[in-house]
Description:
By secondary structure, this protein is mostly beta strands. It has helices at residues 56-64, 77-85, 93-97, and strands at 18-23, 29-34, 36-42, 45-51, 66-71, 101-103, 110-112, 117-127, 133-144. A hairpin with a 5-residue loop joins strand 8 and strand 9 (133-144).
Amino acid sequence: MKKLASNTVLCLQPVPQTIVSCRGKDGRNNALVVGFTANVSLDPVMVMVGIVPSRYSHQLVKDSGCFVINLPKKSFKKEYDYLGSKSGRDVDKFAALDLKWVDAKYVDAPILTECPVSIECSVVESTKPGTHELFIGKVEAVHVDEEYLDAKGNILWDKMDLM
């Protein structure tokens, strides 16, 4: 028999472990761990990230109108934990971690090259229904390490050791 749960916070599990990278007007890169990420549309392909407005990256995404979702492997845990515990207001996280990155092809944001999947997104809408502002992003490109693609370009999710 089912019973009512007493704690309904984060009632939908598992959630993808993601790192959102973005860039400020001054050209400085930043990245943060984001716990709220989801697919929202098939045509056009769109995704959503939820960022608390007090976070440093929130204003960067609002100002730039873009972001990149990076999916880290388990071997990236040390960097993931750091990115989720430090603020870009206080430290240059890219310099502190010596993060490897390249410019995204379609949006003005960095791609974390040590993550096997990076999704370039342009913000098409945002809403703040509660604690997080939800940024709906049109997927401009999905970059995947070649070893995780089959001959037809399909992503081999089961081959990755994602967090």
